[in-house]
Amino acid sequence: MNVTPVPLTPEILVPRLGDYLVERGWLSQEDLEAVLSYQAALRDRGQEVPLLGQLLVKLGKISQSLLDQAITEYVLQLRAALEESNQQLEQRVQQRTAELERALQKLSELNQLKANFVANISHELRTPLTHLKGYHELLLSGDLGALNESQLHALRTMQRAIERLERLIEDLILFSTTERGNLPVMIQPIDLCTLCRSLVEQVTPRARDHRLSLELSCPAEGELFAYGDWEKIGWVIHQLLDNAIKFTPAGGQIVLAVDLMSEYVEVSVTDTGIGIPANRIQELFEPFHQLDGSSTRRYGGTGLGLSLAQKIIEAHNSVISVTSELGRGSRFSFLLRRVFPQPRLGGEHADG
Q: For residues 308 and 175, is the Cβ–Cβ distance under 8 A?
């Protein structure tokens, strides 16, 4: 059965027209209910059902002019209500925006205070540490008197603690520098294989103490230059090796590799350690964050290392990539632009 579509009229824009007519006193509640019942009966019989206003006019309950007036008034009221609602919404948006701006300003101030505090406390810690190192070296050298084997052992243990404290302070200073948006890098050609050999020599005693195998893989020629900051790239590689040692159980293996990648050189540290859950890899680069954040966590550290390493590598227009399998180990890597040797000019060694 085909139903004739309702013609487009202004009444379509007006909801609850009957209630409005009753509220205005232009229609009685009894007449409204009677017309609504009549409208429902037409619908039940499958007949065309006029709009309420049209039916009211047809049944002589109100005049056409009164219907038009009611619809016009109602539409104007709806428009006014919409405009008022829009104004209120705009005011709320402005208020909320102002609140967010104040909160952002406060957060920025707190962040700056944090960076200043970290910087100040780090520099303050340097002075007593310098005294500790100085007297420790005097004791260890025997300049303040002969020492027995037990005393020497105690001093060597103290030396490792001093070195660890020194690294933590340097990490804090570097963090405060990056938080201020000031991370200068001196980009120049650096011999990565030479740098990596030096770093492996530094961390080998610690790897040996943890009963770990530490290997270096470099091209056969032994020299491979890339553009980077020698000191800061060295800091990153040392951090990756330090983490690998920390999170690899005894008997495991760590490999530091330098490989050619067309126009780039890839530096990678691979271990057979505890691994990282795939859904938590991005957390590694959050400052002051430890995946094991419980009060009984097994592994020490400030949680700054990888965050700072990422910032340094980003300052070299690169990123640190991570692949890991829980219980099987992890691989951290980054790319640096390769330095190609300049071709020799012909006749360079010709006799004059």
A: yes
